[in-house]
Inverse folding.
């Protein structure tokens, strides 16, 4: 006889004041909890043109000292209409004492990043510690990610990339708003 389990007993929460309460180690990143969306600009010297994109990002937790991270982007045309799906990634941000962050982030392009850094005063700075690539992935050597939030619903994001023989430089910059 099989028993059904109608509801997960430990759902993820996206609200700092929700249940379960965020683990105390999440305090330096609690301002990220929630779903954010907005627009950004992308560039890289190997690309014929710069591009505009939109993105949706969610940070959630289940009461333990890590964030679940999920991001989906799509390209926009000159009028801001959707052109096609673009980058996706998901992962886990393990928060250690003192606001140290160890992030594991994977992408469907065959890239798996382990990034480490610090969270403090409404910012997180992450630099890749190791990048692993599937056999057919593009050659990504290093990344840097910088997040800044202001407590009033704005999250700014800058992403630097060293890939396909190019030195570390800006690939993305975006401004997101917290979804109500
Ligand atoms: C919002 C997130 C992102 C967006 C919208 C985005 C968008 C793009 C676009 C439009 C291109 C040009 C090729 C194409 O049309 O697909 C590209 C190239 C590339 N992106 Fe991103 N990207 C994002 C995040 C990332 C991340 C997180 C990484 C690496 C960790 C990355 C690494 C690359 C690489 C290696 C290339 C290829 C460059 C080349 O071969 O010339 N991107 N990206």
């Amino acid at each position: 006889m099989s028993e059904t389990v109608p509801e997960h007993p430990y759902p993820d929460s996206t609200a700092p004041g929700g249940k379960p309460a965020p683990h105390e180690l999440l305090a330096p990143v609690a301002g990220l909890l929630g779903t954010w969306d907005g627009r950004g600009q992308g560039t890289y010297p190997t690309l014929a043109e710069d591009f505009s994109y939109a993105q949706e990002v969610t940070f959630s937790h289940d009461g333990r000292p890590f964030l679940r991270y999920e991001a989906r982007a799509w390209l926009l045309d000159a009028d801001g209409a959707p052109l096609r799906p673009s980058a996706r990634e998901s992962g886990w941000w393990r928060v250690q004492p003192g606001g140290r962050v160890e992030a594991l982030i994977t992408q469907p392009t065959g890239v798996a990043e382990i990034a480490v850094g610090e969270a403090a005063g409404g910012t997180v700075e992450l630099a890749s510690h190791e990048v692993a690539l599937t056999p057919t992935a593009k050659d990504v050597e290093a990344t840097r990610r910088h997040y800044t939030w202001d407590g009033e619903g704005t999250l700014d994001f800058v992403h630097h990339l060293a890939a396909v023989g190019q030195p570390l430089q800006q690939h993305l910059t975006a401004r997101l708003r917290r979804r109500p």
The pocket of protoporphyrin IX containing FE is lined by residues 42, 44, 46-47, 51, 53, 55, 73, 75, 86-87, 111, 138, 140, 143, 159, 161, 163-164, 171-172 (CB under 6 Å). The chain has one domain: 24-178. The mean pLDDT is 96.
